[in-house]
Each structure stands twice: as structure tokens, then as C-alpha cells.
Amino acid sequence: MKTLLLYILLVLFLVCNCEAADSIWELCNKDSNFTRNSRVSMNIDSLLVTLVSETPSKGFFTVSSSGQNQDKVYGLAQCRGDISRTDCSSCVQDAARKIRESCPNQSDSRILYDFCFLRYSKENFVGKLDAGAGLIYYNVANVTETDPETFDKVLATLFDRVRAEAVSAGSKGLGKDKTDLTPFVTLYGLVQCTRDLSELDCAQCFAIAVRNFMYACHGKKGCRVLYSSCYVRYEFYPFYFPLDSAKAAASAGSTHSVQLYP
Known about the structure:
This protein has helices at residues 2-15, 39-58, 85-102, 148-166, 199-216, and strands spanning 25-29, 60-64, 74-79, 108-112, 116-121, 134-139, 174-182, 185-193, 223-227, 230-235, 255-260. It has 262 residues and is of the alpha+beta class.
């Protein structure tokens, strides 16, 4: 019965023509030996069905497929810790559909949305820090509300707090907070690492990401650094839940992206 149910879910998943939302980052590593009719491909499809069904209940799930070493596939999905179960479910479904469209012939693929991250590979990456390839998004507008030195100090203090929260017991890798830059301007920050990491690896990933945005996004009105193992972001408007009702959500403005390589 369990096998039959999995088959039905797989068929429904593959034939759905629903249009997925836009992703923030996709990475498809080439695999010259991969074909859509291979055992690996079938294991990926089965693995994605499991991630879609199991992730929303806890916001995080890891799974490995059955099969021999050359066919085995490992997968992980995680939703941002501040969103609802419904939003998590919707995001993971979008991610699972989109990753197979964007990476049709790759057995090592990952995709990131605002609300979730999904990854699979023939290599067992679960529990291992990955801050190699990544992406930086930053607002092209410069900070004008205060001088650069003051902004740097306020931002550093904010991220000291959110990083400490994220690596504390029971945080599930999530840290978020806000601080007043001026009496009229609030700065919002959020970090999250994948929940398969140790506290030490989580802290190390954050250190790498924050160092990158303090350099690449210096003096910018918003930035996010994206890695497979962690996510770091600050903005001049509310972007995490519960939304700050005392502040009107401002436009994100124009952004620019920079690809990070290991």
C-alpha cells in the first residue's frame, strides 16, 4: 500500500502543470553520465515526492533514496523558520517542480526561494558545511540616513545578536531581530543555516557570509548572501514574520547580484 501511494503521489507530482514562483538562486552541476531514464533520475523523483510531503510538518527534512552507491541520492529541504506550514508546503512544491525543469540532466542540484531551500546530490552532503559556490544580492542604493562608520557599527551589533540567536539551542538555525538606525529608520536582519549542521559549522558559515556582505555590500540599503548551508540578509524594511506593523514596507528598489565561487 505504501508503495502504491508513493507511485500515485509521484504521478501527480510529475504531471502537474502548475507554474512555480521565481527562484532566487539555482545551481545545476553537470553530470555527463546522467539521463532522465536512469535509476538515479527515478530516485530523484521519488526523493522529491518525499521532501514535498514530509518537510512542511517540521520545516526541515533530509532523506536518502534506496539503491546501490552509484544510484543512491541524498536530499534536503528546509523552509525559513518564520513562515507558516502552508507557505512552507507551497514553497517546497514550487522548488521541487522548478528544480527538475531547470536542472533536467543533473544529479547535483539546488534551488533557493525566499521561503525555502531544496537540494539533492549523489554525494552525501548532509551534515557538512558548504560555503563554496553562492550568490550575493544587494540594493544598488547607498545608505544616506547616517554616516558609514555609524551604519557599520549598528549593522555589526545587529548581526552579533542574530547570529548568537541562530546558534543557540532550540533556535533551529534561525536568528532575526531589528534595531533603530535613526529615530525614523529601522534596520532588519535575519540569518538561518540548514538544520543538519552543528552549531560550530553554523557559526562558521555565518562568519563567512557576514564577512562577504560587509565587503561586497558595504554601505548598501540591503543585502543578502546565499550559500547552500546558510543565508544572511538585512534590509531597511520589514521582510520577516511577524511583519513589523509599525513600519510601512518600503520598496526593495533596484538590486544587483554577484556570483560567488569556491
